[in-house]
Amino acid sequence: MSEILFDRIALIGIGLIGSSIARDIKKFGLAREVVISTRSAETLNRAEELELGTAYTTSAAEAVKNADLVIVSVPVGASEAVAQQIAPHLKAGAIVTDVGSTKASVIAQMAPHMPENVHFIPGHPLAGTEKSGPDAGFSGLFKGRWCIFTPLPGTDRAALERLSSFWKALGSMIDEMDPQHHDKVLAIVSHLPHIIAYNIVGTADDLEAVTESEVIKYSASGFRDFTRLAASDPTMWRDVCLHNKDAILEMLARFSEDLAYLQRAIRWGEGDKLFELFSRTRTIRRSIVQAGQDVDSPDFGRHALDK
Ligand SMILES: NC(=O)C1=CN([C@@H]2O[C@H](COP(=O)(O)OP(=O)(O)OC[C@H]3O[C@@H](n4cnc5c(N)ncnc54)[C@H](O)[C@@H]3O)[C@@H](O)[C@H]2O)C=CC1
Ligand SMILES: O=C(O)C(=O)Cc1ccc(O)cc1
């Protein structure tokens, strides 16, 4: 089934995503050595306690020496600092990838530092939770989920194939996109939902004083879903907002226009408009469920596993 795909893998950053990758590498035996590096000694110690790798260092430069695959899993705002640290120490022919939620900014931060003799292939697994840190990761996170690559022009196809094989071994489905397109699509399907969640939970929190805790006491499942997203890591989401600024502002402008339309329809009692919109959005949910992309469904990820 699984086989060794890389002799040595370096994982830079060992939070939710890095540690989930580490757990799958170990489970499926995809590498002989896994060197783990992260900034804080405390997190590194925890990674060692969890036996996520075979070697541990707080030096990213040290970690990438002799690595055939380097996976950078840090908040997107830290990409340039990491690229600067690792660049002089990368092995010729190594594949360097990342998992960042935004792509144009990560490319702008990392590509200029990458030596010509390495393959830099930006990536983004569309899988995660609201939790963070090495304890939050788990094996199987990427199963049945998309991993999007945004390769630079002239990327070596063989290197891309090797990286695809790695993500497929984790159960992911692969897609390729232009980085700007990626950032627009993700702005609407991922970044805006998080921003809306942070906002609505913030509004409710402000109301708490008025309602004397009734917001929490009576929170129905709709509000609870928002609180899960709004519990996501503040550093990560600050960086996403700052590093996908244009696409997010564009989507927020459209969102505000549509909200004004809804507001107007409610004010003027235009039930037909409300009914038309609510019917249209209902079909979107149904098509997601039908496409087997509903994470709540027992069949979720089945098609990828069958491969
Ligand atoms: N959390 C999620 O659901 C998903 C996150 N991503 C992306 O994956 C990346 C990592 O996210 P998570 O694993 O969730 O975060 P996390 O907070 O769980 O882990 C981040 C890791 O990066 C390290 N780190 C933080 N700042 C650093 C710096 N300046 N230099 C070096 N290392 C640093 C931390 O010590 C930690 O090991 C982010 O770019 C995020 O956008 C992608 C898909 C899903
Ligand atoms: O927790 C959730 O619902 C998520 O949406 C997780 C997530 C967060 C950021 C990404 O770039 C991809 C996935």
From TrEMBL:
Keywords: Amino-acid biosynthesis, Aromatic amino acid biosynthesis, NAD, Oxidoreductase, Tyrosine biosynthesis. Signal peptide: none annotated. SUPFAM superfamilies: 6-phosphogluconate dehydrogenase C-terminal domain-like, NAD(P)-binding Rossmann-fold domains. GO terms for biological process: tyrosine biosynthetic process. It comes from the Bacteria. It catalyses: prephenate + NAD(+) = 3-(4-hydroxyphenyl)pyruvate + CO2 + NADH. It is an enzyme of class 1 (oxidoreductase). Pathway: Amino-acid biosynthesis; L-tyrosine biosynthesis; (4-hydroxyphenyl)pyruvate from prephenate (NAD(+) route): step 1/1. Residues 7-296 form the Prephenate/arogenate dehydrogenase domain. The keyword Oxidoreductase applies. GO terms for molecular function: NAD+ binding; prephenate dehydrogenase (NAD+) activity; prephenate dehydrogenase (NADP+) activity. InterPro entries: 6-PGluconate_DH-like_C_sf, NAD(P)-bd_dom_sf, PDH_C, PDH_N, Preph/Arog_dehydrog, Prephen_DH. Its EC number is 1.3.1.12. Belongs to the prephenate/arogenate dehydrogenase family. This is prephenate dehydrogenase. It comes from Rhizobium glycinendophyticum.
